[in-house]
Amino acid sequence: MDDIIDGADAFQARALDLAVVYGSNLLAALLILVAGIVIAGWARGKVAWLLRRSGRVDSTLEGFLSGLARYGVLALTALIVLSQFGVETASLLAVLASAGLAIGLALQGTLSHVAAGVMLLFLRPFRVGEYIDAGGTAGTVQGIDLFATEMRSFDGIQTVVPNGRIWGQVLKNYSRSPTRRADVTIGIDYDADLDRAMAVMRDMVAADGRILADPAPQVFVGALGDSAVALTARFWVASGDLLAVQWDLTKGLKEAFDRTGIGIPFPTRTIHHVGAPSEAAAPAGPVPQPRDGGPA
């Protein structure tokens, strides 16, 4: 009976010791967990505030980076909490690193698009609403996220392009510059009054208020074609006026040339038939006449 009582007392004492040890560890773990959650929220807000203050970071990238800071603090908090219960964090980190490497290899294509999306959102080579051409895919940017960029072409086709395809190609942004250069070329007859035609083009360019005076517009002979002399008007306009000015000026020049009698020729072609019989090879002498009214 005494042995049973002694065993019960020993078990109770051992249980009390374990409760004190693990209770203190549990309390410390809870305090660390609460502190980690608070610090994670603070870190997320601080990173978002710093990125917003810089004014160079897109809102999508701002949310991604601030969320990354929050999850980083939470991951560190989880490791500290596990260490309170005697878990070997070094071994756990090795396992997590191996798992992360395997996942990274399996998702390397997707992760490359995410990395490209981060670079596009951070460096901002284009923004929503700008017209771009990325490796032959052209359109107005409708949206940018971490995985893909959505564009809308001139004919209304929605195109979703993975960010890795855009980041790895030559990118042309047609909307970033406030002004654009434009050329309007029209062919005239070779026998037309060249100086008069160039004067008409200069007057038309000068009359259009959308065409910028600086840099000064130019009118010159661009080429001597097969059937026409190509006159070119070169000028600068605001980016948003480019197409409208080109269309209006082309129409106006055609009407002005018609009024002033300056011809715009149709393509012509001269054909030489090699080996055709010449007049010298035709038979000489009188042509035989039919007799008695019969056939010759």
TrEMBL record:
- The Mechanosensitive ion channel MscS C-terminal domain sits at 183-264
Mechanosensitive ion channel transmembrane helices 2/3 domain ranges (all copies): 68-108
**Which compartments is it annotated to reside in?**
Cell inner membrane; Cell membrane
Highest taxon of source: Bacteria
Signal peptide: which range, if any?
A: none
Q: Which InterPro entries match?
A: LSM_dom_sf, MS_channel_1st, MS_channel_C, MscS_archaea/bacteria_type, MscS_beta-dom_sf, MscS_channel_2nd, MscS_channel_C_sf, MscS_channel_TM-2
Q: Which of UniProt's keywords are assigned here?
A: Cell inner membrane, Cell membrane, Ion channel, Ion transport, Membrane, Transmembrane, Transmembrane helix, Transport
Q: Which residues cross the membrane?
A: 20-43, 64-87, 93-123
- The UniProt entry lists the main location of this chain as membrane
Topological relation to the membrane, as annotated: Multi-pass membrane protein
| Domain spans labelled Mechanosensitive ion channel MscS | 110-176
Q: Which family does it belong to?
A: Belongs to the MscS (TC 1.A.23) family.
**What does this chain do?**
Mechanosensitive channel that participates in the regulation of osmotic pressure changes within the cell, opening in response to stretch forces in the membrane lipid bilayer, without the need for other proteins. Contributes to normal resistance to hypoosmotic shock. Forms an ion channel of 1.0 nanosiemens conductance with a slight preference for anions.
Under PANTHER family, the record lists:
SMALL-CONDUCTANCE MECHANOSENSITIVE CHANNEL (PTHR30221)
The record describes its quaternary structure and partners as: Homoheptamer.
Q: What's the protein here called?
A: Small-conductance mechanosensitive channel
